[in-house]
Amino acid sequence: MVLDTIDTIETEAPAVDAAAALLRTANDWLGQDPDPETQAELRLLVRAAGDGDAAAISELHSRFDERLAFGTAGLRGAIAAGSNRMNRVLVSQAAAGLAAYLCGAAAPGVTPSVVIGYDGRKNSHVFATDTAAIMAGAGVRAILLPRLLPTPVLAFAVRHLDVGAGVMVTASHNPSNDNGYKVYLGGGDNGSQIVSPDDARIAAEILRVATERRVPDLPRAAYETAPESVVQAYIDATAGLAHPPRAQVNAVYTALHGVGWDTTRRVFEAAGFDLPTLVDAQIAPDGHFPTVAFPNPEEPGALDLSYETAREAGAELIIANDPDADRLAIAIPDPSSDTGYRRLSGNEVGAVLGWRAAELAAELAANAPGDGGAEGTLACSIVSSPALQAVAAAYGLRFADTLTGFKWVSRAPDLIFGYEEALGYLVNPGTVRDKDGISAAVALLSLVSDLKADGLTLADHLDRFSARFGHFASGQISVRVTDLTEIERVMARLRQSPPSAVGSIRVDHVDDLSAGFNGLPPSDVLRIRLVDGSRVMVRPSGTEPKLKVYLDTSSTDGTVAERKAAAEATLAELDRGMRELIS
Length: 583
Known about the structure:
CATH architecture of the largest domain: 3-Layer(aba) Sandwich
Radius of gyration: 25 Å
Shape: globular
Helix content: 40-55%
CATH topology of the largest domain: Alpha-D-Glucose-1,6-Bisphosphate, Chain A, domain 3
């Protein structure tokens, strides 16, 4: 039976009514969609579903039964037609909803304002210009950044321009057909990403727009374009994180087909560093990401071309940004590796950058009048290594652990450094309240320059860290799924039957953070503490269809070599035990 007309639907059985309602929803979406590509794709699905094609009907349910919800910092998903995908209709509704929120929150007589940035992904520019025009049409002062730029520049611009909000169109390191919509708030939020209750209020406004208004009827107006001086101000502020280099470093750099290089190059030049050797095939922005399976420096194979380039150049350091340059990956020479290099974990880089921040705070205190000690807070997410807490304790600094995501890390009071293990580092909270792979690269390069001037390498420095604070070993199990209910089943099973041991190591207790814990907001996270002091965290990913398990242990006994061996042996046992528990 053909179900492509409303007349047929209303007289049929309930199952037919449901199918017809689905087709009505899809046809209504078609009538609002200005994108020829997603229009054509949806027409094919509607026609097939109307002819009774079960696969097409299932696909329409997947696209329209739900709306893409605000996640880690806004919206993120695959580009396709439908309310549960990223597309021009959804983005237009989001822009109108955010505009309504900003207008409602503005003080009487104050014009709300927003700055909008975009990267080199598919549809990033059109999503950004749609947003700017709709925001302007709603009475918001809308400022579009002058060209495709890294996410940290947008985060910087929110504070630099003193606007009420920021929108960055990016899906960061997600697969090539994904895009996203990150939202920041200015004013008292200091340019951090949205958190509760603002996310829920914005989501409610978006839903109201989607329910009551049609996208073609949303008014549009002219918007401003920010001057290049905004980018230059970011470059100046970021270059200022480094003192003049004491030694030049032979480095290799890759942008992983993202937008990082132009800005990074200008920052390195302004800071006085020699420019690195480039991974030429990955320097220009390309939303297809042709040389990598996933444009994420954490993924196996993503840095293979960097290793090849580094071997040819005899490089001392590899610097990699993800496609929107808010993350930083670092690799160092390692003769024991098949590639000749080893990528450091986010926890290793976070530990040495945190140590650097603590040292700078101590120097500042020593040069200040009086006899006060170092001040400030080191912060990291709850799934990151406990190593940073050890640094804070050693320097008399405050420590804060937060929920996962820089929307939480960036809000730690008196923050001087923050990080999370997924290669995100906040080294310049005075100007950027988000992870920033460019400023982190400058800070790291400055550290390596100092070490080289003193005859040391970054590998030596990691050993010095282990000698002073203990050796911290971290691991991660990441399980990608096609059915999100698989993750729900694993989390439910662990809650209903908490493990008594992980491998051969007994469990001391399990903290369920779903209702909040020790001042932390509710989160779908389980924290397993073991009797030997080790820790396991289990949570669904906030940005990808993955279950993530984080393993952390440490040793302070014996020599550095003995500490490493003990911690790595425990880590291997935790890994074995958790794989059994989640299988």
